[in-house]
């Protein structure tokens, strides 16, 4: 992350490197915390690797697809989403509870974090930029229908939209409605219809046609 | 929508729906993220405390004029991280400033393409 060549006030024979201000601040923290044994650089690298490559919305899609195909699992998800999701191997959010929000006829759920950007990392990975943006955080609560329209979703006027404000201790996963025309599909195939946004509630699961 | 927010709402910029990009836009964001996760795992703070602090940093930045469209998120994250580290007494603000300057000097004393290591400037 070295910077650009720099024509400033220092007088070395060679051009030195330059770290951006934020890079300097992060190096500062990492080096001090490592020296005092608060963090282990190898563990940090492993964390980054996991979040960049292993944890993402495919996890959540598998949870949703299982709920669509396995009524007992769906019940478990309703009763204790934290445990039901951990059963798929997705956990590790120090103390946070997961809650599954089921969409159904006449009910649509949508998730926001008005405070910052609390998000169900184990099932969705890290949040998209728009989820962290002030316009979404403020408008999702005030005007959910307008926000949905911006995402290209129009719901029947009599569908109730429930907006859920996440906290550090309570994180939500929307279970979108299973699309029509998917009778007989197995969980793996169904998971392909479950988009990240459909599990935040700013979209619906894909129709079999759209997925083709 | 008859509430007074409606007018304020109309003035809000659109949600950057399409903006996707990689999980982390730059390496420092990944490092800052991982540091917070690691400190939480060690019990330096809880996620609840973290959310409060991060939320406060975001509000402070907004008050200072940040349009806060999601792309400055990790700047807030880093600020919150520095704040909690100092507040919990892991290091003082002076410790951080001193180390920051040491890294800056080391970087400037390092030719392009070589790894930057602390103390480089003291050759």
Describe this structure as you would to a colleague.
- In chain A, helix 3 crosses helix 4 and helix 8 crosses helix 9.
- Chain A has 12 helices and 4 strands, in the order H-H-H-H-H-E-E-H-H-H-H-E-E-H-H-H.
- Chain A is globular, with a radius of gyration of 21 Å.
- In chain A, the strands form 2 sheets. Chain A has a two-stranded parallel sheet. In chain A, strands 2-3 form a two-stranded parallel sheet.
- The longest helix of chain A has 15 residues.
- Chain A has 2 domains: 32 residues, no CATH class; 156 residues, Nitrile Hydratase, Chain A, CATH 3.90.330.10.
- Chain A is α/β, with parallel strands linked by helices.
- Chain B is an all-alpha fold and 123 residues long.
- Chain B folds into 2 domains: 66 residues, no CATH class; 32 residues, no CATH class.
- Helices cover 57% and strands 0% of the residues of chain B.
- Chain B has 5 helices and no strands.
- Chain B is globular.
- The termini of chain B are far apart.
- At the A-B interface, helix 1, helix 2, helix 7, helix 8 and helix 9 of A face helix 2, helix 3, helix 4 and helix 5 of B.
Q: In one word, what is the shape of chain B?
A: globular
Number of domains of chain A: 2
- Low-pLDDT ranges of chain B: 1-12
The helix tally of chain A amounts to 12
CATH topology of the largest domain in chain A: Nitrile Hydratase, Chain A
Let me know the largest β-sheet of chain A: 2 strands, parallel
Average of the residue pLDDT scores of chain A = 89
- What is the radius of gyration of chain A computed over CA atoms, rounded to a whole number of angstroms? 21 Å
- Tally of strands of chain A: 4
Based on CA atoms alone, the radius of gyration of chain B comes out at: 19 Å
Q: CATH homologous superfamily of the largest domain in chain A - what is it? A: Nitrile hydratase alpha /Thiocyanate hydrolase gamma
| Coarse structural class of chain B | mainly alpha
Largest interface here, residues on each chain? A-B, 66 and 74 residues
Shape of chain A: globular
Q: Specify the biggest β-sheet of chain B.
A: none
Our estimate of the beta-strand percent of chain B is under 5%
How do the strands line up in the largest sheet of chain A?
A: 1-4
Distance between the termini of chain B: 67 Å
